[in-house]
């Protein structure tokens, strides 16, 4: 019996591995085709100023609806793109789409709302990163002032010296700079001080239980104080309830992003949302 069980166990494990590697193979070949055919779109999620209610920016998030695989989450295909080197061409497609998004925003009358683009650490670390981004902006007739670049805490913690000089150059070009997923990557304070960052985004994992867990509250409170001392603005990510909004406001959090205000939307719907929002709050952006 035990032998039999052992074999079943093994073959079960083997089957799981096989399905897994089948998935990776399919993902790989579909992703290559998708990049060739540029089958990606961007959706945009607004960030709201907690004091003025202005929309201070929107974050671009990539979407891929594959003919064969259906909807694939960015977490899955970005990771695969990073491991296979496809991320460089994918990043260029994403930047191109973000430039298109910017043209649509300008045409709709909102030239001052910057679009935040997530940058993969693999792309960021390429020697040609700055050049490739500049080329894309020029090709699309847009300027760095219209964009914000989101790098994750993990990206900037990799190699301090090179990172500092790259960030400084991006800043000189006119990009706003954000550090994404803050709190998940063991960053060193001494690095943080040296980076010319404008915005710190507190990871959703801290926001999720902020109303029920005192330790999460203490951490978020401390991060906000620290960021403000370093002249950075703070975005809370993944905000879903009015209780979270109220608590974050009371802690002095500058901006809020999350389903509570809006899910990420296609540009057309996002523009409708902005128009609705302006009427609702009778403010100008
Ligand atoms: P991220 O940059 O931290 O993006 C925030 C994620 O949280 C997005 O997931 C967004 O849809 C989701 N989100 C926003 N508000 C809420 C909320 O209230 N509740 C919950 N539960 N979730 C919320 P998404 O679009 O699935 O993206 C996941 C991650 O994939 C991103 O995390 C980013 O790291 C990566 N990613 C997405 N788009 C791109 C891209 O264009 N380029 C690169 N390099 N990475 C991207
Ligand atoms: Mg982000
Ligand atoms: Mg994040
Ligand atoms: Mg994230």
From TrEMBL:
Coiled coil: none
Boundaries of every EAL domain copy: 24-278
Record's protein name: EAL domain-containing protein
Native source species: Solibacillus merdavium
